[in-house]
Predict the 3D structure of the following.
Amino acid sequence: MLYEKHVPDEEYTRVGYRDLKSFVKEVFLRLGVPEEDAEITADNLVAADLRGIESHGVSRLKRYVDGIKNGVVKTRPNVKVLKESPSTALVDGDFGLGQPIAYKAMRIAMEKAKNNCIGAVGVRNSNHYGIAGYYAMMALPDMIGISLTNSRPLAAHTHAVGRSIGTNPIAIAVPCKQEPHFVLDMATSTAPIGKIEVASRKGVKIPEGWAIDEEGNITVDPDYVLKRGALVPLGGLGEEMGGHKGYGLSVAVDVLSGVLTGAAWGPFVGATEGPAPANVGHFFIAINIDCFIPVDEFRERMELLKMTLKNWKVHPKAERIWIPGEKSWLTERTRKEIGVPLHRRTIEMLRKIGEELGIRFPI
């Protein structure tokens, strides 16, 4: 079955995912990033595009390139464990690329869960780590994975005006007997900032209710939002539709990722004037299912839960029922077969980066 979460239009050109990943990896290698770290970062960015999460895919490559060139992101950080117990660890990322730092931290959490039933690892002094679900899914198919991160302030908390909290995503990956597994990967704002960037590149308005202006009024202008506006919490403006719940979730992520780890939080993530480390914080949990019930039994029970939800009576205005992560899984399978669609402006940006570094873009 071929399926894509968002069907691209004539502004898009498809590129083979292996060629795209090789290009992105070579960019990082030319910038002095070690082989393993370049591989992880490229894999994370391309995985976002494969799963239909354009907002966090290769369209963000310039952000990482600029960070390295400005000295904000270290290519060879001294990542180390500051504090450790049988089931916990605190990792200092030394302001390196967020992807390899997060990958190593989740590996530590999984190893601790293997030996002690649960592993919880906090990270300080990191940077943007791409899609949160990438690290939660590392725990599959034998463990439950949880991945949290805070971000620079891009949203206004409930009843406030101006940027004060991050989009602070939450990802939970749970194994089922058969794919697709249950994978929840969500921002705690109505939309991630990447979707605003995508709308800006396409020259289209954003949905009403995603963001507010400096006076607290709803705005649909993505360029204004990127410069001076603020996103609103999941649930929307105010409390009527549950915006206070999204606000609470965002702050909860900040507590675990920022306050608990010693990283920055809320309005202080990347708050220093000029190019400076953002001190992003992450938090990872791995749960060893066998410590509760046999993993095969758990996967059977999850499969029953999944199929019960999918086979429920369908709403008259809907075609079918989906489980979290199913659309992304199908999109990934489709794009591995027919290519990753890239917007023309993204291709222009990638070509320019390639020309500067002496790398041919694969189109």
Q: What stands out?
A: The chain has eleven helices and twelve strands.
